[in-house]
Amino acid sequence: MARAGEEATARPGGRPRDAALDEAIIQATRERLVRDGYSLMTIGDIASDAKVSRPTLYRRWSTKFELVVDALDYGFRKQRDMYAVDLSSMAPREALVEAVRRLDPAYFNPDAMVLMGNFAGEANRTPELLGILREHAVEPRVALVENVLTRLQETGAVRDGVDKHTIATMCFGSYFAAFYRGESRDDIPESVVSVLWPAIATASRKRE
């Protein structure tokens, strides 16, 4: 498909692709994924929401799965810049707080928790979707925290030998716990790091 913001490109023997139509279809697909989930959403509903005909949609995507993969990729591309934290101007503890903040699934997309729940429900029927989500939305976030911890170890702020994988996983899980308990996510970064920091910081950094 033509990516949002790109110029329409000509198809062999046909008219140029209309980037605005592509954008409308992608946005309609993303909204239907949140409202209905993958199994219940239909091509007809998406076409109606995007105000296009079914043939117009099928000329771009031959299956619902292909359309959903592109709709997910649209969101992933917009999030990629968040998977790096510049430590140069941050105190070590502050850098970890910022990394945990960006770990929030809803940091970019407020509907992400519902979307992830929908895909978890598809694990038996369409496991490929959960695999895509894991690769592009979960692992980069968890790796962000692990990488920040590694850099803090290199600067002597965090002890060697801490279990970075488990720490990152626990931080990620905190957002889901808050979601299911009906609690605010706003205080999670500071609250989580306030518990972790005394246990992982080197002696000279524990009071930060």
UniProtKB/TrEMBL annotation:
Key words, A-Z: DNA-binding, Transcription, Transcription regulation
Descriptive protein name: Transcriptional regulator
Any one Gene Ontology molecular-function term assigned to this protein's record: transcription cis-regulatory region binding
HTH tetR-type domain sequence ranges: 19-79
First and last residue of the signal peptide: none
Statement: the UniProt record of this protein carries the keyword Iron-sulfur: no
Biological source species: Amycolatopsis camponoti
Binding region for DNA: 42-61
Database matches in Pfam families: TetR_C_11, TetR_N
InterPro entries noted in UniProt: DNA-bd_HTH_TetR-type_CS, Homeodomain-like_sf, HTH-type_TetR-like_transc_reg, HTH_TetR, Tet_transcr_reg_TetR-rel_C_sf, TetR_C
Superkingdom to which the source organism belongs: Bacteria
